[in-house]
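Entry:
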Amino acid sequence: MDSAAWDAASDSIFNFSPSSVASQLPESPEQNNTFPETVGLSKYSEFYSPPPHFVTPPLCELEVPPVPEGLSREPARANNATHFAVSTTFLPASNLLPNPPDFVMISADEVSFYVHTTQVLGVSSNHFNNTVSCRPVCQQGLHNEPGFSDQLATAHVAETSHVLNVLLHAIYGLSCAAYQPPLDVLLAAVDAMPTYGLSPQTHVTPSSPLFALILAQAPINPLLAYACAARHDLAALATPISAHLLAFPPDALTDELAACIAPAYLRRLLLLHAERVETLKALLCAPPHPHPPTARCDFEAQKALTRAWTLAAGSLVWEARADVSDGVIQRTLSSLSDYISCVECKRSLADRVKQVLARWTLVKVHDLSTSSVGVADLGVFCGQRTI
């Protein structure tokens, strides 16, 4: 493009005025009736089109219906609507019992639980902390208006919906596994039972769903679960949980943790660790049985195996803990065969290692509340590694 063309283009850009464009536009519809009145802005499209980087919405004519009298087009406010959070198990129309629910419990986080007063009062010794009464209530419209609790007597409970849900499932003998409550919620429900006149010894039994849920999650925090079982004297629950505390060193037990455990159960836990260590010492004190002397291995030569066994057993006992594994014992003792050339000595060593492992696997500390630390007869230990 030559210089004259550039000058003409620059003049058209910098000397732009709206009147120059208006002079090129046709007359308005009032002055020129060649365009129908419904065309609107479309008649100017041949003179002006927006730049491609602008998005132009399509032209349309919307017929807005009239606003009914007494109404407004303003959006509804959220606080004008009333919402009710209701338990998915304890519904107004639940069929947990033949008769419909006649009482509403509202948790601390405003979740409603529709329950039966006969079921709650039948297991609570204090009317569920004096929140449930046995007076008759009106049940009219219960199933027709499930969102409203005005038809029934209500009471607010200080527990959260998660804890109250576990409590009510325990009262009805139902499993709350579908809700997947964490361990701290399960234990909080057990701790709250005495407050509401419920007996943990009655609702946390080996045959109850709550017992199974706590035991399944006990490995997550065994000390917390054991302390809860100790506070409520749940020996049937504390016994299997104690198996997960073998790895817990007693010297790591602080005063705060010890205060959370009942004294009798704390003693049983400490004796569990002490007696298992004594049991391991008694198992390792006897060396492999000597075999009849041969031309290549007499009694004097077999003393080498006895000395090696004593050293290996001493290393295990020196760092012995209640949770020492079978693999550690087997690797430590079986390694002695690498330094023995006699076939009979190797066979005797292997038999002794198998015997130690078999007895250690069957070790059980029986009633620690009446037993003392020490092992008089290894044959009496059988069962699991629990209290």
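The beta strands are 85-86, 103-106, 111-115, 153-156.
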